[in-house]
Amino acid sequence: MTIRISETIHKWMGWCPAKTAMKSSMGISGYGIRKGETPGSPDRISSDRIVDYVPTWTSLLQFLVFGTEIAAIVAFLKFVNKYYPGTDILLLLCIMLVTGYLIIYSDIKRTTIESGPDVITVKRPGFRTVHIQKSDINNAEIIDNHRPVPQFVLAILGLIIIPVFSVVSIYGRYVEWISGEILTPLFIAYLGFFIVISIFFLVIYNYARIRKRYPKSFVITTKKNKQLVIYGKSFEELVEIRENLL
Fold first, then answer.
1. CA 134/CA 140 separation, integer angstroms
2. How many CB atoms lie within 10 A of CB 240?
3. Residue 29 backbone class (left: φ over 0; alpha: ψ -120 to 50; beta: rest)
4. For residue 115, is it within any domain?
5. C-alpha–C-alpha distance, residues 155 and 52, integer Å
6. What is the DSSP string of 70-94?
7. What are the E-state strand segments in the chain?
8. Among 163, 173, 184, 240, which is least packed, fewest CB within 10 Å?
9. Sign of CA dihedral 126, 11, 157, 166
10. Quick count: other Cβ atoms within 10 Å of Cβ 225?
11. C-alpha torsion angle, residues 63, 65, 68, 73 (rounded to 10)
12. Residue 183, in any domain of the structure
C-alpha cells in the first residue's frame, strides 16, 4: 500500500550463483546478462537493472481499490487524531520516510531478473519478489520512455514550491508555538513533517530523473493488469534482454 502511494519505483542487484558455479557471458559486455549453469538455476539472469513493477491503470477496479485504500488511510488518520492530536502527522511522516527509503534503497541496489522455462522472477531489494508466469504475459514491447509527468514540473515542485511551502508553514507553526497556541511536542511533529515532505519530494524528483536517462524501455504487460518496465540505454540492449527473458 505504501509502495503504491508513492508509486513507485527501483534498482536492484541480487542473485549470485554458488562459488563453484561456472558462468559464461551471454551478451553485450556490461549489460549483466548471463546464463545460469548450476543445477536448478534459471536459464537466464539479468542483473543490475532499473525496473518498475506497476499497475497498468487501465482497469476501473484498480482505480477503485486505490481510491479505497487512500480513503481508508485518511479515515484512520482522522480517527487516531481525534483521540491523540498530532498522531496523524507522525503516522504520515512515517509513511513518507518508509516510502522514500524503499525508493532510494531499491535505486541503489537495483534489480535482478531471472528467467526460467515458465516463469520470470523479479528480485527487488526492499520489495517482495515478483513471479510472472510466461503464460500470463499479454504483451511485450520495446517503447520510447515517456514519463507521465514532465521533468520540469517535478523540478519546480520538488526544488521550489514544496521547500518554500514548508519554510512558510514551519514559520507559521513557530509563531503559534512562541505565542503558546500549540505545545512543544506538536510543534516538533509539524517541524519534522515539513522537513520530511520536502525530502520526500526530492526523492520523487530523483526517482524520475534517474529513469529519464533511459530513452527506451521494455514493457511486459500481464493479464492481471500489471506491467514490468525494464529501462535500457539502447534499443539493442533491450532486444537482447527480451530475447533472454522470453
1. 11
2. 19
3. beta
4. yes
5. 21
6. HHHHHHHHHHHHHHSTTHHHHHHHH
7. 11-12, 24-25, 33-35, 44-55, 111-115, 119-123, 130-133, 137-144, 216-222, 226-232
8. 184
9. positive
10. 14
11. -110
12. no
Is 164 part of a structural domain of the chain?
Answer: no
102 within a domain of the structure (yes/no): yes
Per-residue pLDDT of 156-207, as tens digits, reads: 988 899 999 999 999 999 999 999 888 888 888 888 888 988 999 999 999 9
Over the chain (246 residues), what is each successive 10-residue block's mean pLDDT? 41 34 32 46 70 84 83 86 79 88 87 89 89 92 85 87 91 91 85 89 91 92 91 90 86
Q: Is the pTM of this model over 0.85?
A: no
CA distance 122 to 99: 19
Number of other residues whose CB lies within 10 A of the CB of residue 177: 17
Q: How many domains does the chain have?
A: 1
DSSP 136: G
Determine the Cα–Cα distance for residues 141 and 87; give it in Å rounded to an integer. 46
